Structures are given as C-alpha cells and as structure tokens.
Amino acid sequence: MSLKKNIIANYVSQLYVTGIGILILPLYVKYMGAEAYGLVGFFAMLQAWFALLDLGLTPTISRETARYCGASMSALAYRQLFRALSSIFIAIALIGGAILWLLASSIASEWLKVDSIPIADVIFSVQIMAISVALRWMTGLYRGVITGCEQLVWLSIVNTVIATLRFIGVFVSMWVYGFTPSVFFVHQLVVAIFELLILYFKATRSLPSKVSLPEAIGFSFTPIKPVLKFSLAIAFTSSIWVLVTQTDKLILSGILPLAEYGYFTMAVLVASGIMIISGPISSSIMPRMARLHAEGKHLELLSVYRNATQLVSVICGSAAIVIAFFAEPLLYVWTGDRELAKNTSLILTLYVIGNGFLAVSAFPYYLQYAKGNLRYHLIGNAVMAVVLIPSIIVAATYYGAVGAGYAWLVVNVLYLVSWAGYVHHKLEPGLHAQWLLLDIIKVVAAPALVVYGSKHLIDTYYTATTRFSELLLIITVSLLTLIIAVLSSRYFRAGLFRFISSKVKNV
Where in the chain are the domains? Predict the structure, then answer.
C-alpha cells in the first residue's frame, strides 16, 4: 500500500473523527448539561489512564506484524506471538475492567464533585464506563495487526463509521430514551462491542493461515521473550506518556466541580486536536520506517523522517498558531457563549501551543522505534516525568487549569530544545540542526508572523458582530496560514514543482 495513500486516508478519517467529535460537543452541553458532559470528559480520561495496562503490547504487535510482512519473521513465529499477546490482552481487560467496576461507587460519591445528577445514575454510568473502556482497550491488539499490515485505508473507513455511531448516533438513542448520562454511556457500550467485533474479524483474516504453517501453533509465552525488552521499553514510555498528559486532568477532576471540569475538558479537547491530526502521520511512517531499517535502506528512512516532520510542521503548526492567536473567537464561534469563551481561552492557548511543541518533539521516538532501541526515549521520558508531574500537581492544585496549562507549555518547550537534540546527536550526528531549522522553524516562522499581524490588524480596524463573521475571519486566516506554511516547506515546494512540471509537459 502506498505510504501517501495511507497518510491521506488517515488524515481524511482523522479530520472527520476529530472534527465531528469537537463540533458536536456544544450540543452535548446544550441537551445533557455541563455537569453531564463532565462525566463524558471523565470517561475520556479513564480511557487514557487504562492505557497504563497496555504494557507496550500494542506497538509491539504492530512492529512485529510489519517485520512479518517484510519477511523478517516466520509465519509460525508470528502466529505464536499473536496468540500469546491475545491471552495477555484478554486477561488485562477482564482484570482492569473489573477493578474499575468495583470502584464505581467510591468514584461517584467521593472523588467526583457532583451537584445535580443523582448519585445512582453516576454510579451506573461509571460501571458502564468500566466495561466500555476495557472493550475499547482490547481493540488495540487488532488495530496493531491492521496497522502493521499497512491496511490503513480500510482502518480509516472503519474509524469514520465508528465515530459517526459514537458522536452522532448517540443523539438518536438519547432522542428516543432521554438525554441522560445513562443512555449516553449505554450507547457507547453498544458501539464499543460493534467496534471490537469488526476489528477482530479483520485482524484475524490478516493473519497467516493455520493450514500453511509447518506445525501447530500451540500455546506458550516463550515467543514473547525476544520482544520483551522492546515491549517493556514501550510500556515504560507509554506509562510516562499517560502520566505526563493525564495527571492534570485526573487532579482537576477531583478539584473542580463537575460542570467546570466539563468546560475545562472542552478547551483541552480542542487543543488535543493538534496531537490527533499528527497521529495519522506517525501511524503511517512508523511501520514503514521499521521496514526500511530492516531492509538496510538508511537514506530512505531519513527521507521519510524529515519529510514527515515537515508535514507535521505544516499541518499541526498552522493549526496551533491560528488556534493560539484566535482562541477566544474560536471558542465563541464553537459554543455561542461569550463568557465561556473568555474564561477558557487562555487555557486553550497554553495547551495548544504546548501540544504543538509536543507533536514535533515526538519524532525522535519514531526514529528509535524504527531501530528497535528505545533507551534514550526511556531516559528522556523519565526525566520529563520527574519534572512535569510535580510541576502540574503544584500548579493545578494552587492555580487550577491555567496553572496546569503553563506547566505543560514550559516543560514541552524545554523537552524539544534539549532532549530531542541530544537524541539526534546520539543516533544521527549532524541531523538535529537541519531538522530543527529547516524542517520545523523555517516552516512555521512565516505563518506565525502572518497570523500575529492579522490578529493585530483585526483587533485594531475590525470588530466582528456575529458568530458567522468571526467564523469567516478564522477560516480566511487559517487558509492563508496553511498556504504560507506549504510554500515554506521544501518538501511541499518540491512536490508542487513536480506537479506543475508534469502538467506543463502534458500541454
């Protein structure tokens, strides 16, 4: 499958999933209430924390699938590994889901700051969350197989369908049975079951046939031993990732009233779109880079790495810049609530800039993933956790959501400037300066200046009177920013030149 097709398919799907998830939220608040939406935000946080139980298994099966497809692993060894990992996934899903179910009463009555929703409804909702979270986490195994096979176009279509059922289909259920948290989460459970089944059947059909194997698969955890070091390294870094990205949300869920937590979640969700739209690129290049490394194609690997960096800088950089400068009007256009937009705009600005730095500072991890050695990533994430987690705890406790936002931004800037350079120096000497200056700064510098100037001119000479007029301004600035970013990228300019040249030759 073409890498470009995979990236395009991923982007179309991810933009739809992200867009529909964000655009629909004001309707949740309108029909369910801010407090009920706080439960939805808590549900999203639980899914992230449940990833601590992954133990590096999802990235491991994805990488080993890519190696099998690249003829670096036998069919029998691959099937034995898949069976062993499947058993671990099922066991962890059952244990983790059961523990969360048993803690539902304590979470509802002692942790969450509930005001108007009956405690019995909150307890029931948390119990349904427990089952849904376990099922959705199980899909990671099958997504790993499908991703490793680079069947990302199919996966993108499925993601689009599932998102439609989750975000839009739920309104049909609530229209019939009532706009309550219980109805919302029961609907999510049904969708989670459907998602698990369809991914299971697709993944198992992608496995090598049992008939073609030289002997029976059997059952043993021995196949895990060769990948245990890699898996544990991934597990550690994944745990650190959850800790550094979800600690603020966990703390604030126990500090803020549930309604205020819902508003905070809305702002952070918009900011998280930066990381979400960078996801299709990473999921596409990681198996490709792993295969190129296995085939000894070093220059091609670096080319994919640098071109993907520019792609993220163009798309995520442009989005982060526009959202950061136009946070308040964007929130107003989205929600129609001036007061909400004013109170949460700074939170959105801080988180979206921090996520912009995080999107590009993740690239050294992709390079280490391809080479199968995550030593530097482990050290870097451990140091980041030691610095970030206490900072967020103190900042969130004393200064609330804004304090957490400042801590998030500062630490991510420091990580990109310091640790990413150190990793490049160790793995690819001489790469970092070019990567940072040509693939990131050069791409985002001009768009940032344009957006800054546009914001100054708009604030000085123009006053938007309606949500529609503000929306037109944001769209116009966004398109202008994206065009300038594209022209600032060597990778995009070369592609544009080739396209124009081919058209001219055909005339």
Answer: 1-228, 296-492
